[in-house]
Specification:
Helix content: 40-55%
Number of domains: 1
Number of helices: 12
Distance between the termini: 39 Å
Order of helices and strands: HHHHHHHHHHHH
Number of strands: 0
Largest sheet: none
């Protein structure tokens, strides 16, 4: 069966919410300084990345080095995107192939359709079906694409658990600072986890009760 590829506009909307949220500041100074104004890696890179003379390979090499040597994180890349930096799709694709950013983030920023595999940390069809028996009771068949569409269109908004790695209820209770900043919007919690879970070392795999 041909797999469906969806352009997940709900994720984009939730991602936009992240930009306006009062999330804790993560970025530290790039180096110790006696000056009152510190410089971050992001502020150093943004002018170069936005320079029209910087070609696709130049963008890739700068981001590759920064990510490889942990001067930037996946979350930092998205933060800069929210500030208006636009990355060439070819550079993002290479970074994803290198394992330096997720395929979810690559496709989100490149404006490409996403599939179930891109949501793997928060969605697994078999887990989703087993953890939510009302889906079968409602006559929804066990089919990965059908379940993925259900997850995107209603499961995320309802805060349904869909993988062993991410329990939205656990996220809300154990990371209240993020949940509060994101508001009463469970869909945004999934997106936040997909983008920032490594930055903040989030562990949302535990069941409650």
């Amino acid at each position: 069966m041909k797999k469906i590829r969806l352009r997940f506009t709900a994720a984009v909307s939730a991602a936009v919410i992240l930009a306006g949220s009062a999330l804790p500041v993560r970025a530290a100074a790039a180096y110790d300084s006696d000056y009152t104004q510190t410089v971050t890696m992001e502020s150093l890179l943004i002018p170069a990345l936005m320079n029209p003379k910087t070609n696709d390979d130049g963008v890739y090499r700068q981001l590759y080095q920064a990510l490889r040597f942990q001067k930037l994180t996946q979350g930092s890349i998205f933060d800069m995107y929210q500030k208006g930096v636009r990355y060439p799709a070819a550079a993002l694709q290479k970074l994803a192939a290198d394992g330096l950013i997720s395929t979810y983030l690559y496709k989100l920023m490149a404006g490409l359709p996403q599939g179930p595999e891109d949501f793997a940390p928060v969605f697994n069809a078999a887990y989703y079906y087993a953890a939510n028996p009302d889906l079968a009771a409602a006559g929804i068949p066990y089919d990965e694409n059908t379940l993925f569409v259900n997850f995107l269109t209603s499961g995320m908004q309802a805060g349904r658990i869909a993988s062993a790695e991410f329990n939205p209820s656990y996220f809300k209770i154990n990371y209240p600072q993020f949940a509060a900043a994101l508001g009463d919007n469970p869909a945004a919690w999934y997106v936040f986890y997909l983008i920032y879970h490594e930055d903040y070392q989030l562990d949302c795999s535990r069941r409650l009760g």
